[in-house]
Amino acid sequence: MKENRSYQEYFTSSSKIFEFAFKKWKFLLSVFIVSAILALVFSGPKFIAPKFEAQAVVYPANLGGYSGETRLEQMFQYLQSNVIRDSIIKKFKLYEEYEIDSTKPTSKNAVIKEYSNHIEFNSTKFESIEMLAKSKDPKKSKAILDEVIKLLDEIIRKTEREKYYEHVVIAKRLLDQKKNQLDSMQAIITELSTKYGILDYIVQTEMVTEGYMKFLLEGKKGKDFEEVKELYNNLKKYGRYYHDLNSQLNSINNEFLGRLNHYEMSVKDYKKYLTHSYVIVEPEVPDKKVSPVRWLIVVMASLSSVLFTFIILLIAGAQKESDVE
Question: Which residue in 209, 224, 235, 240 is deepest, having the highest Cβ count within 10 Å?
Answer without folding.
Answer: 235
